[in-house]
Amino acid sequence: MALLSIVVPNYNYGRFADRFFGSIVAQKMDLNEVEIIFVDDGSDDDSLQFAHKWADKIQCKRFEILTPARCGKPGPVRNYGLERAEGRYLICLDPDDYLEPEFLSSCIETLEQNPELDLVYTDYKENSQDSSRIVNLPKFSPAHLRSQNTIAPSALYRSKLWDGGVRYRDNTLYEDWDFWVQCLVAGAKFQLIPQVLYNYEVHGANFSLQAVKSDGAAKAQIVLNNPTFFNSIVYEWAGAHLRGRLHASAFQRGCIPRPIDIKALLLKMDSGEI
What's the first-to-final CA gap in the chain, in angstroms? Predict the structure, then answer.
């Protein structure tokens, strides 16, 4: 059994491979206890060529390259890799991003030293072609996930969450957010490591940018997927939004409305303000 399984879902990200795998090699931990599962989603660039190159270079427990049929969504691609993972800890890493050298060791040490915790993540740096910014996340609160995704782009967690049935769903484009909610519903304890140890790249090919275009529907589906986690008023909003009802607007992008927000909107509609 490996200590850690790293699942790398990939589609046409060959141009980022050297930087990504270079950051894995630079980790301050023994990679002999780490397995890497590279899942290519039908790339037509040089992704597989780079994957095979790094499979020969990286000294790790196992480096497997998988080529399932083209899916087009990262969630099922991640599930495909996770189904084959044997690690005590699991993480999915997008190959357009990269890690600071202390990322994996800090996350694993935190979980090893705190058996009550199940999932950890760090602050991160968001980079684009023109700028970069540090994202200092708030201390974790379950209430945050009811309205916003305040978890980093990637988190490291115990395999018991996967074994307990948590999966990436393909019916919402905010599949990460939905996954974190599932973990919380399953009883997982989260913790932020307040250090900038992850680098998130923003570019035109990001799948997350597609979610912005379907923001309302993507949020509503998270609510419908996890009815016990959300207030009944929010659940009713989600169904109404997907049915195109006028009183169920999308609200602010990236934010699931709170019951108070929905009630305020309904009052305005009843009073004729809208």
Answer: 60
Per-residue pLDDT reduced to its tens digit, 162-178: 999 999 999 999 999 99
How many whole angstroms separate alpha carbon 24 and alpha carbon 124?
16
Render pLDDT for 103-152 as a digit per residue (tens, 0 to 9): 999 999 999 999 999 999 999 999 998 899 999 999 999 999 999 999 99
CATH topology of domain 4-211: Spore Coat Polysaccharide Biosynthesis Protein SpsA; Chain A (3.90.550)
Sorted by where each begins, the domain ranges of the chain are 4-211, 214-271
Between strands 119-127 and 4-10, the pairing is: unpaired
DSSP state of 93: -
Separation CA 87–CA 97 (nearest Å): 22
CB 55 within 8 A of CB 65: yes
What does the alpha-carbon distance between residue 65 and residue 179 come to, in Å, rounded to a whole number?
24
Q: DSSP assignment, residue 95?
A: T
